[in-house]
């Protein structure tokens, strides 16, 4: 009897060894940051932590160079081979949702109630993507420059008016201490133009497109406010306040630090390096040109592809990745704004009293996302060319009218892009 029990036990043990453990289901993820070592390292750590935290899912990431990422997504969508999880530049998200690349995020929006507005990818009343950081632009200056030129230091509650801003540029120009009063980074004729410069247009009272319907740019991009903006914009270059489109790219990196410019319009991603080199740098809010002071918002975000057969698993990963500890890790690693106030308090630079806390406040108070429409991918390119042409001396009214015609033709050709 004892031998029988031993044999039975051995057979049971043997049969158990033949049953494999349940395997985790693989989720594919595509990412735009190939070559960005710090950012990639943090994301790989998040993936490793997620894979080890549960037994249902495992994420496998493939990275692409940012320059070719959007084309890779479009090609994969045509071939029906999109990954489960992908990241998307915030202003491009409505186009991807409209084109069928993304599905609404299968996570209750209340999970992200504390996130900065610019980190939420909304389209047609639904949340499609969520960002682990945001970015903000400010006017870089030295406190010694403000004091030396006898200028009031603007605050978020009391920014410079248009007249005060131009008086500051005039004072810097008249001092003879600088090659230019202002650097705008005009060499970067990519998404920088609509991100950094359309808020100036919006502060004048215009916009890239009429946001009430998204069916036309008429009046928004060529109306009275836009005309005033265009003339002011052109004067920055014709009157020698700022270098134009032929500016050396290196100047945006080191020109302010080297003392070539009194002021620089730049993002928080350049703030840490600038603080290390300029001990009295201050980050000032955007001027108010009459319709309120505004800056851009919306950076890279995570979403679930429309073709994913495991949206629940993809959503679990995104929820995991948006924990405060990871938002803080990205902020400390790459210098961008953490998405939540609680994550900001965990960072070196954005916690209360931190050297970059002002950027969190700017993003919360001034930020305006770029036009939330599938047509933005075309409107962005039209706007960039329009501002470059005006900076180079093109007639303001004719150039703005031509931009409106091009944008409206694209909207018509695409059936209004699904706006209701």
TrEMBL record:
PANTHER family with a match to the protein in the record: MALTOSE-BINDING PERIPLASMIC PROTEIN, MALTOSE_MALTODEXTRIN-BINDING PERIPLASMIC PROTEIN
Family assignment from sequence similarity: Belongs to the bacterial solute-binding protein 1 family.
Keyword Zinc in annotation: no
Key words of the record: Periplasm, Signal, Transport
GO molecular function: maltose binding
Signal peptide (UniProt feature, chain positions): 1-23
Protein name: Sugar-binding protein
Entry annotated with the keyword Translocase: no
Cited InterPro entries: SBP
Cellular compartments per GO CC: ATP-binding cassette (ABC) transporter complex, substrate-binding subunit-containing
Source taxon at top rank: Bacteria
One GO BP annotation of this record: maltose transport
